[in-house]
C-alpha cells in the first residue's frame, strides 16, 4: 500500500509498505479516505521527536472500515469512521485516576506505531469513532484536532456569556473560535498578524478581529473592553512571544489556556508575568484530547457539532492533495514557500 514514512530529519518518503493485518481480536483496519497534516507532524519532520526510523507518519484521519477482529462489535466493514489516534497504558497512576491525557506512556500513531499517511491504518476497536452520513470525510479527518480544542475548553470554568480571546488563528485557533461559541461565548476576539487568517476567523464566527502589528493585542482588547480584559484567553499560536503576551489579555480572576506548543524557550517580561500574580489568574495546560471513559466526551461532542454545522472546517482546509505529494508538501511548508492552512491527503487517489 502507498504510505509516507519518516526516516530522519526532513526525510519523509513516499513508499510501498505492507498492508496491516488483523492480529488481535479487537483490531480494526480502516481504509483511509482523508488524512491531515498536524502542526506536530511539521515539528517532528523538521526537528524530530519520538519516532521509529521508517515509521508510517500521520494521525488525523477519516475512512471506512475494511476489516475487523473477531471480538469487534461496535463497528463493521463499510462503516464510516474517524479515529482517535492516541494510545494509553491504562496502568499508570494517571490512568487509574481516569486522567488519561496525563498517561505516562501516552503516544500517538505515527510515532512508535504505524500511522495514517497510508491507504490503510490499524487501531483498537475502542479508538474508532463512528461518523454519520451528514459528516463528510474531509470534515471527519479533523475530528481529532477539534477534539483537542474541546478538551481544552472542558478544562475551563467558562460560563455562557463569557468573552474569549483566541491568540493565533492557525488550525487550532480557528477551531477554538468555533468552540468558544459552542461553549456560550457572547464575544470572541480573534488575534493574528495574518489578515487572511483573520478573515477566515470572521467567516466562522469571530466578533472582533485584532492584528497586533500596529498596536498590541493587549492595548486593543483593553480599549474594546474598557480596561477589563476577557474571561478566557486561549494561546493557540505556539509562539514564544504570544505565550508570554497572552497573560495580559485575561481579566482579574480570569483563565488562560495553553493549547499551542512553543518549540523554544519562553522569556516572560515582568509586565506579563505580573498579570498572573496581580490578577490571580488560573493558568491551564491542555494536552491531547482523551478523557474517561475513553476516548472521552470530546469526540462524541465534536462529531455532533460537525453534524449540525456548528463546527465548520471547510474554510480552514487550504490544500487537497495526493499522498505522493507528501514529501514536496512538507518541504514547502517548512520553507514557507506558500500559505498553508489545513492540508489533506487522499491516499486512495493517484
Automatic annotation (TrEMBL):
Keyword Transmembrane helix listed: no
Q: Which SMART domains match?
A: PKS_ER
> Is Zinc set as a keyword in this record?
yes
Name the PROSITE patterns for this protein.
Answer: ADH_ZINC (PS00059)
The organism encoding this protein is Virgibacillus kekensis
**Top-rank taxon:** Bacteria
Q: Which PANTHER family match?
A: L-THREONINE 3-DEHYDROGENASE
Q: Which Gene3D superfamilies match?
A: Medium-chain alcohol dehydrogenases, catalytic domain, NAD(P)-binding Rossmann-like Domain
Q: What is this protein called?
A: Galactitol-1-phosphate 5-dehydrogenase
Q: Give the protein family.
A: Belongs to the zinc-containing alcohol dehydrogenase family.
Amino acid at each position: 500500500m502507498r504510505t509516507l514514512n519518516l526516516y530522519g530529519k526532513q526525510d519523509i518518503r513516499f513508499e510501498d509498505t505492507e498492508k496491516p493485518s488483523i492480529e488481535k481480536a479487537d483490531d480494526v483496519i480502516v481504509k483511509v479516505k482523508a488524512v491531515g497534516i498536524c502542526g506536530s507532524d511539521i515539528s517532528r519532520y523538521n526537528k524530530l521527536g519520538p519516532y521509529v526510523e521508517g515509521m508510517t507518519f500521520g494521525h488525523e484521519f477519516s475512512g471506512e472500515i475494511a476489516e475487523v477482529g473477531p471480538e469487534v462489535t461496535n463497528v463493521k466493514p463499510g462503516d464510516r469512521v474517524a479515529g482517535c489516534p492516541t494510545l494509553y497504558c491504562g496502568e499508570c497512576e494517571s490512568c487509574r485516576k481516569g486522567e488519561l491525557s496525563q498517561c505516562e506512556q501516552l503516544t500517538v500513531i505515527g510515532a512508535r506505531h504505524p500511522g495514517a499517511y497510508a491507504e490503510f491504518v490499524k487501531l483498537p476497536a475502542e479508538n474508532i469513532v463512528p461518523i454519520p452520513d451528514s459528516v463528510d470525510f474531509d470534515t471527519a479527518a479533523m475530528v481529532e484536532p477539534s477534539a483537542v480544542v474541546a478538551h481544552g475548553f472542558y478544562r475551563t470554568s467558562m460560563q455562557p456569556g463569557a468573552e474569549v480571546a483566541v491568540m493565533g488563528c492557525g488550525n487550532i485557533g480557528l477551531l477554538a473560535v468555533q468552540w468558544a461559541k459552542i461553549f456560550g461565548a457572547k464575544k470572541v476576539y480573534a488575534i493574528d498578524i495574518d489578515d487572511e487568517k483573520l478573515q477566515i476567523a470572521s467567516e466562522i464566527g469571530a466578533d472582533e478581529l485584532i492584528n497586533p502589528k500596529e498596536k498590541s493585542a493587549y492595548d486593543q482588547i483593553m480599549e474594546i473592553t474598557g480596561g477589563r480584559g476577557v474571561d478566557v484567553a486561549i494561546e493557540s499560536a505556539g509562539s514564544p512571544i504570544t505565550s508570554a503576551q497572552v497573560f495580559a489579555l485575561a481579566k482579574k480572576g480570569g483563565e488562560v489556556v495553553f493549547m499551542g506548543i512553543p518549540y523554544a524557550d519562553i522569556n516572560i517580561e515582568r509586565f506579563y508575568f505580573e498579570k498572573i500574580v496581580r490578577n490571580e489568574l488560573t493558568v491551564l495546560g491542555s494536552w491531547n484530547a482523551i478523557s474517561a471513559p475513553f476516548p472521552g466526551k470530546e469526540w462524541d461532542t465534536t462529531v455532533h457539532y460537525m453534524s449540525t454545522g456548528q463546527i465548520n472546517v471547510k474554510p480552514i482546509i487550504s490544500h487537497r492533495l495526493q499522498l505522493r505529494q507528501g514529501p514536496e508538501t512538507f518541504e514547502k511548508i517548512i520553507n514557507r514557500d506558500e500559505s498553508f492552512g489545513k492540508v489533506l491527503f487522499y491516499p486512495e487517489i493517484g
